[in-house]
Amino acid sequence: MGTREEELKGLGADFTFGFIQVMDGEKDPRNLLVAFQIVRDLIAKNYALGPFVEELFEVTSCYFPIDFTPPPNDPHGIQREDLILSLRAVLASTPQFAEFLLPLLIEKMDSDLQSAKLDSLQTLTACCAIYGQKELQEFLPSLWSSLRREVFQTASEKVEAECLAALHALSACLSCSVLSSDTEDLLDSFLSSILQDCRHHLCEPDMKLVWPSAKLLQAAAGASLRSYHRVTRSVLPLLLEQYTKHPQSSQRRTILEMLLGFLELQQKWGYVEEDESTLLSLQAQVCSVVFSALTDPSVQLQLVGIRALTVLGSLQGFLSPSDLELVVDHLIHLALREEDSQSSEAAMEAAGSLAPIYPKVFSGRMVPRLEEELQLGRESSSDRCSLRQRCLQALAAVSTHTSIVRETVPVLLQHLRKVQKGNTACDMVSACQSLHRVALQCQQDAEGCWYYHQTVVPCLLAMAVQAAMQESAHPLLGKALLEEEVLAAMVPIISAATTHLSPELAAQSVSHVVPLFLDGEVSFLPQNSFPCSFQPFEDGECLEAQRRLVALLMAFVCSLPRDVAIPQQERLLRELLVLSCSCNCPFTATTAAKCFAGLVNKHPAGQQLDEILQLAVNRMEPGLAEGPRRTQALTLLLWVTKALVLRYHPLSSRLTDKLLGLLGDAELGPAAADGFSLLMAESPDVLHKGCHADVRIMFRQRFFTDNVPKLVQGFHGAGPDVKANYLKGLSHVLNHLPKPVLVTELPTLLSLLLEALSCSDRVVQLSTLSCLQPLLLEAPQIMSLHVDTLVTKFLSLTSSPAMAVRIAALALLLPYKARVIRALAKPLDDKKRLVRKEAVAARGEWFLLGSPGR
């Protein structure tokens, strides 16, 4: 057929008849796939079918629905789904099959086999794409009857979903038909049948047929704008009337959810046509119903009302200016005053969705109200504190448009300055969390992102520098801002404000920030009249507060795009290196090490990088050997190793070997073992793809291959007092491997993991249990060889002092039975409710194991 098409077509219908004879009775699935493809070609390439249309249909449809189970170890790999899709493509390839196919589909829809129902419905949906009004007309009543029955009666969500899809396709097909003046409008009569059978059920919100009826009506209405207008003209007034008639909140919620479904369909068309829209004519009633839901005591009804409000707001031109003001007032009340947090959070999300559509209304009405609430008396009652918290969250939520961001950011910064004077870290963290949310929302808008960056970053730096200088001169002033908790909350703000900057704007910003830390250049900061110079890298105890601000430098420089040049980078790296090894404050030393590692990870390969790394090694090795700052040296080693492992740098293996050697150290061994978690886990603030770090694919798998044999070897050669360090390091590596890799590699390490379960370290126990879980599910044949040992160890861990270990051990006991039931009696009386809950679940499953149907 590919090379002799003209000759074959010259044979006319004789070729089609000959093919039908050859195909008749074929059973081999390989040949059937070829045969189905040939039939599709016959139809698609307009071969003459002559009087053999029905015969061609019969010779293919006899395989419908496909009932095929591939034999085990089938070398051809043909699946049932392949045959189903190939046959469906044949049956739905031409309208000429319609008069034969549609009765067959109706018959199979009545089948007791769910697979036959699903196949029939999916085939009907496919056929609607090529059928017209003429092909469907005769069968519409029967098709509707079958679809209605299935949706009303089925217990299967799959069958229901396919029925609704088929009804949608039928309505769409009828909507596309071109009408002449003397032909019947089949769409109108079809929709009339649906309305006649379903509409009255909407008046019974407590009955079980209300939702099937609503779904059928929505499926038909969603097919086209014409069908939407026809259905909503009948249904929307009824729903509004029923909402008024039924006073109970549960009934109103059901009715409003149905109404919401139709509103969402209008949202799909994207506009409201004044001439035809039923929705527009019912504007006042719809708004009244939605607003009443927002003031109802029922939280569930409020939540549906908020969703409906969001949809109405998205319909351009639907809400009048006075309605919009009411919308904002309702959202403010729900966000700030509603006791239930669900309604409050939903109202804030709705404000965030609607703010970009109506920025002037929200910036002119909502932001001033929130600012006013925020600035009211600062008494420390829990109610006032909760209200302030909600104001901050609402200001952040509504900041989804650049013009609103310009209003909310100054309010949030002003509040941050205000609470700084109150010296309460908790309030400052709340303000920082709101600023961070605004930063994330600005990232996709270049204008908003740059405004936010140049407004917030200098302001935060100025506040921090001012506080650090006050702390240096007067230790009691500005202390809250310098606490780890507050600085840690400021880091993601600066990072999020920097990661999405264009290279040109980032270069402009870096030219100010780096000189601030290296040279004390404060001229770009607002309110820059400081009492003394800013020298975070200088020696002296009085400068300890200033050195803590390296965390903010880290947030900035480690979030820059890789192609942005950092001024004085080599000097900055040397200063960070010295600070990380010499500072007595763990927080400062760690942030300096992280900042150094973040810069090293992005540094272009070459002599300069090699020199810096050699300097780092020369600093670390003596520090690790002896002295009072071994912990700082280990922290630097871990972060530099992570930076190099991520980018596959050759020095990473040498540093990893150094870390492996420290596992045998009595003092640093446990910390070095925990360091393997740091190497493998995703870091939240530096060295991840979001901040443009150089992260190679499959670095975890490579680290596993290179280092796990060394861990195993070290374990076998280690003394009994440090063996736990090797087990802990191994379990951290395994825990961060992708599950498919873990399942293939774990069997070789199983004996070691069983030994790890006897380790007294709770971290090792918990980590090992989580490693064994996928093996129990994916490789039971391997685990069955060790069943006695596993059950014994799991049972002993159900009495562990650590609650998390007891829960994990109980969860893993579910796959075993007889000897477990008696042993599980003890955890049933555990002092912790969560442990008792897991024990009940495990013991119940054990009792039922092997019973009929289990």
Report on this model:
This is MMS19 nucleotide excision repair protein. It comes from Otus sunia (Oriental scops-owl). Belongs to the MET18/MMS19 family. This protein has 854 residues and is an all-alpha fold. 70% of the residues lie in helices and 0% in strands.
Largest sheet: none
Termini gap: 54 Å
Percentage of β-strand residues: under 5%
Which residues sit in consecutive blocks of at least 5 with pLDDT less than 50?
none
Amount of helix = over 70%
Shape: globular
Average pLDDT metric = 86
- What structural category characterises the helix and strand content? mainly alpha
Q: What is the alpha-carbon Rg in Å?
A: 35 Å
| Beta strands, count | 0
Domain MMS19 N-terminal: 4-153
GO cellular component, one term: MMXD complex
Subunit structure: Component of the CIA complex.
Keywords: Cytoplasm, Cytoskeleton, DNA damage, DNA repair, Nucleus, Repeat
Give a quick summary of the entry.
It comes from Otus sunia. The chain has 854 residues and is mainly α. Helices cover 70% and strands 0% of the residues.
Task: Summarize this structure as a short list of keywords or feature phrases.
about 850 residues; mainly alpha; about 70% helix; globular; MMS19_N; DNA damage; repeat; cytoplasm; MMS19 nucleotide excision repair protein
